[in-house]
Amino acid sequence: MADDQPVALALGGGAAKGLAHVGVLCGLEEDGVEITALAGTSMGAVIGALWAQGMRAREMEGLFRSIDWGRLGRILVTSVTGAAFRGMVRETFGGQRIDDLPVPFAAVCGDLDTGDMVVLDSGEVATAVCASSSIPGILPPTVVDGRRLIDGAVVEPVPVTAAKNLVPGRVLAVNVMRPPIRGERGGALVTIRPVGVELPSLFRRIEGWLRRQRDRGEDREIGARVSRWEAVVQAFHIMQYRLAASYPVDTPTIEPPTGRFGWFDFHRADEIIDVGYESYRRWAGRPE
To answer: Which of 11, 64, 137, 209 would give a disulfide with 232, using CB separation of 3.0 to 4.6 Å?
Structure first.
């Protein structure tokens, strides 16, 4: 950034596309930009919570490059009730509370019954992340204080309002919901292993959680289930992008070109993170 002013980040949803947030964070950290707060929607809530609890961007990069996405994908797809996803999130964040995080954080959700935007800026981190990531048709609502909460992208795909309310000062938004490109699809889930990467301790916890799960192997139904997920999530993607585009925007926004990546292309973490980093560099006016 030209003036290196402190910023509060508004990180939008986008499933695997949201890994571009990690690349943006890498650029901000390299430039020494102070991040005063983070608000996240869906995948943006996952990334924002990890950073707010102390994990830096390069550690996240090592984590996401190293996870066994093939095994994790099979477990999540065959968990119809969403219990596996919730278990993984709780393994990741434990019982940590938002109130105790070293950096202010908020997760944006939608109230399924009223349509209201709900901003969770207190309580358990894991609960907030689960609620913000409860994609309709994919994961059941998360009940918080009697309210059935769903993915925040139905009300604010890029949580600018929540970020502005966290702390005074400048907000920088990251919108990874660029439209998909016709004819370009992601490949099958594969396993990626790191080369010369120092892994964060969180990786060992997730690996331990994976070992404790029931792996159904090559279930013949998995392909059909993923296709159904893709149809639901692609429709959700279009809705999010149009909703975000309809807002009057007076906030600086980085839009990594993630259209060529699928919602479940987590195995392409290195490519998606690079796209985020390159987009930040172009936006900041400091190409390598």
So the answer is: 137
Task: Give, to the nearest 10 degrees, the angle between helix 69-77 and helix 201-212.
Answer: 50
- Helix, strand and coil percent figures for the chain, each rounded to 5: 45, 15, 40
- In terms of C-beta density within 10 A (0-12 exposed, 13-18 middle, 19 or more buried), how is residue 192 classed? middle
246 tagged catalytic: no
Strands (DSSP E) along the chain, which ranges? Answer: 7-11, 35-41, 105-111, 117-120, 142-144, 147-151, 170-174, 253-254
C-alpha 55/C-alpha 95 separation (Å) is 16
Query: Which one is catalytic: 68, 121, 151, 274?
Result: 151
- Dist CA 152 CA 109 (whole Å): 4
Q: For residues 173 and 108, give the distance between their C-alpha atoms in angstroms, rounded to a whole number.
A: 14
> Among 36, 165, 50, which Cα is nearest to 108's?
165
Verify whether residue 42 is a known catalytic residue: yes
Per-residue pLDDT of the chain (288 residues; tens, 9 = 90+): 445 689 999 999 988 999 999 999 999 999 999 999 999 999 999 999 999 999 999 999 998 888 888 777 777 766 767 888 899 999 999 999 999 999 999 999 999 999 899 999 999 999 999 999 998 877 889 999 999 999 998 889 899 999 999 999 999 999 998 765 555 444 433 333 334 445 567 766 766 776 677 555 444 444 444 455 665 666 666 666 666 666 556 789 999 999 888 888 888 999 999 999 999 999 998 544
Q: Choose, from 42, 66, 133, 134, the residue flagged as catalytic.
A: 42
Amino acid in the structure at residue 178: R
Q: Please state the pTM of the whole predicted model.
A: 0.80
Rounded Cα distance between 259 and 27, Å, is 21
